[in-house]
Design brief:
Blueprint lengths: L1 E9 L4 E6 L5 E5 L16 E9 L2 E9 L3
Antiparallel strand pairs: 1-2, 1-4, 2-3, 4-5
Organism: Lactobacillus porci
Subcellular location: Cytoplasm
Keywords: Cytoplasm
């Protein structure tokens, strides 16, 4: 799994962007990719683990979990 930091997440729009730790690129994330229990939202600055998959408009995050340090 890859790791990164949530750069922004818009709860009303249900999407945001995660910056990858390795290549520092930002990738789209939709709320349905969040695999945590409860309300599906992220907050800027949260550390996450995720995978990348080809989406309609390029690579996007899937299987997103909060990173447990």
């Amino acid at each position: 799994m890859r790791t990164g930091v949530v750069k922004q997440f818009e709860p009303k729009a249900s999407f945001g962007f995660i910056e990858d730790d390795q290549n520092h690129k930002s990738y789209f994330v939709f709320y349905t990719a969040i695999k945590e229990e409860g309300y599906k939202r992220l907050e800027a600055g949260q550390r996450v683990r995720y995978q990348l998959a080809q989406g309609k408009n390029g690579l996007q995050c899937i299987n997103v979990y909060l990173a447990k340090d």
